[in-house]
UniProtKB/TrEMBL annotation, chain A:
This is Proteasome subunit beta. It comes from Massarina eburnea CBS 473.64. GO terms for biological process: proteolysis involved in protein catabolic process. InterPro entries: Ntn_hydrolases_N, Proteasome_beta4, Proteasome_sua/b, Proteasome_suB-type. Coiled coil: none annotated.
TrEMBL record, chain B:
The lineage of its organism: Eukaryota, Fungi, Dikarya, Ascomycota, Pezizomycotina. GO terms for molecular function: hydrolase activity. It is found in: Nucleus. This is N-terminal nucleophile aminohydrolase. Residues 1-35 are annotated as: Disordered.
Length: 260, 264
């Protein structure tokens, strides 16, 4: 212990060496986000007749460390829209605050029509594009699910570069590789959305969450799922994966110590 | 801030016991880890005729080996009334980085609409073409990463087609292919539209041989060429496919068609 209060509670320099402050900036340009730190993995979503279903697990990873296991990555905006966030969690929290202030402003305005999913997607896409153009990106891949101005199912994505696209089924991150092919098997195009019921779509998305848990090392078995229909938003957090079967695991050869 | 750390001994003091402590800020500027562009694949093409212009583009959007969506239009009506561009006479096609393409489309569309409000007449394609060049050139040091093609009818009612590079160089042409499969489609167009390497049969041998004169082609023939170009490109380029969107601009307005392409 020394008499400098600034040093109290800090690792002792004679034991641990001087604090390495080389990562503090002394000169040079402003540093913006160069890579995400705490991250969420896939978001999965599919349209069905009369609405959209969207899901994301509750894990926030710090590299390969499963750091936070109770993170809600689906955000209800109003009775028409849910936003799903993949990528950096702190940027997600920033966008959450941004959406909060947008919502408050909207509720105080004299316009009666609430913002629909299409409006919100346009807004978020412009935010993302502006930030990438400033070389200060929000390191996220967003899915915006809900109903458009004509109360038809709407599903679109916006990413850190400001790229946007819409499709009857969407999945971000690892889900783009693993879940999207499964979803497209049932819902290959816009026309087939009419043949898919809410129950079918929910079952399909839950199946995708299971496959992602099996194969995505940065995923977990607890997730949020939201269903958006004319009746409003039904968002459930902390759903556990059901009917897991690890029977295939003992068939796997080639990893570990077994001698084939 | 500095006071908080002033309690520590100078950096030249003892280092970590297990490894050498870096003692100075790394010299030189740190590299940016963020690259603001991506390639969303796809291809576009435009051909102009005597009294029409056709623009076409596939509707696939990709990132790497992934298909983002099977329907993301690359053709946009410019001007006209309202968000649906009713009564528009100009079409812009953009291929490359889709986010820049959308931003570019939005800017040009606003400018053309404002022109009509301010001058009480629609903007000519010639003027619009030059304005588009200026928009691209203005962002020369952080370019819109797109190959744009602009189509419409000129003041004489003839088909007009302008093609651009990402920094605004532009040229009026008879035909142009852009995007991922441009290297596959453009030579086909050179041959079939501008009749390159085509000669009049029986016109002689050696220097006597007469090159085939290029001229405006009929509309149905051009439509066939476009379809052939894309069905062939789909076979050989993985970023092209899913659907073919065509916009035909003539005296009546803009006629839009969609035909399916292979989704493999």
């Amino acid at each position: 212990m020394n008499h400098l209060p600034q040093a109290w509670g800090r690792p002792r320099d004679d034991v641990y060496g001087a604090y390495d402050n080389s990562h503090f900036q002394s000169a040079g340009p402003n540093q913006h986000t160069q890579s995400p730190i705490v991250t969420g993995t896939s978001v999965v979503a599919a349209k069905f007749k009369g609405g959209v279903v969207i899901a994301a697990d509750n894990l926030a990873s710090y590299g390969s460390l499963a750091r936070f296991t109770d993170v809600k990555r689906l955000r209800k905006f109003n009775d028409n829209v849910v936003v799903g966030f993949g990528g950096d969690v702190s940027d997600m929290q920033y966008l959450d605050r941004l959406l909060n202030s947008l919502d408050i402003r909207e509720n105080y305005s004299s316009v009666d029509d609430p913002l629909n999913a299409k409006n919100l997607h346009t807004y978020l896409a412009k935010v993302m594009y502006k930030r990438r153009s400033d070389f200060n990106p929000l390191w996220n891949h967003l899915l915006i699910a809900g109903l458009d101005g004509e109360a038809k199912p709407f599903l679109a994505s916006a990413d850190l570069l400001g790229t946007t696209f819409s499709s009857p089924t969407l999945a971000t991150g690892f889900g783009a590789h693993l879940a999207q092919p499964i979803l497209r098997r049932t819902i290959p195009d816009e026309d087939s959305v009419q043949n898919v019921s809410q129950d079918d779509a929910v079952k399909l998305v839950k199946e995708c969450m299971k496959v992602l848990f099996y194969r995505d090392a940065r995923s977990m078995d607890k997730y949020s799922i939201a269903i958006i229909t004319k009746e409003g938003v039904d968002l459930v957090d902390g759903v556990k994966l059901e009917n897991q079967s690890w029977a295939f695991a003992e068939q796997i050869r080639g990893y570990g110590t077994q001698t084939v | 801030m500095a006071a908080i750390f002033s309690g520590a001994p100078p950096q030249s003091g003892p280092g970590y016991s297990f490894t050498q402590t870096p003692k100075a800020v790394p010299s030189g500027e740190r590299q940016h880890g963020f690259y603001p562009y991506t390639d969303n694949g796809g291809s576009t093409l435009g051909i102009s005729g005597a009294d029409f212009t056709i623009l076409a583009g596939d509707t696939r959007s990709t990132s790497g080996y992934n298909i983002n969506t099977r329907y993301a239009p690359k053709l946009f009506k410019i001007g006209g009334e309202g968000p649906d561009n009713k009564g528009a006479r100009i079409v812009l096609s953009v291929v490359g980085f889709a986010a820049d393409g959308d931003a570019l489309k939005e800017r040009l569309d606003t400018i053309v609409k404002m022109y009509k409000y301010q001058h009480g007449k629609p903007m000519s394609v010639t003027a619009c073409a030059q304005r588009l060049s200026h928009i691209l050139y203005n962002k020369r040091f952080f370019p819109y990463y797109v190959h744009a093609i602009l189509g419409g009818l000129d003041e004489e009612g003839k088909g007009a087609l302008y093609s651009y590079d990402p920094v605004g160089s532009y040229e009026r042409e008879q035909c142009r292919a852009a995007g991922a499969a441009s290297s596959l489609i453009m030579p086909f167009l050179d041959n079939q539209v501008n009749f390159k390497n085509m000669y009049m049969p029986g016109s002689g041998t050696g220097h006597e041989l007469k090159a085939k004169e290029a001229g405006p082609l009929p509309q149905d023939h051009v439509e066939d060429l476009v379809r052939d170009a894309f069905t062939s490109a789909v076979e050989r380029h993985i970023e092209v496919g899913d659907g073919l969107q065509m916009m035909i601009i003539n005296r009546e307005g803009i006629h839009e068609t969609y035909t399916a392409l292979k989704r493999d």
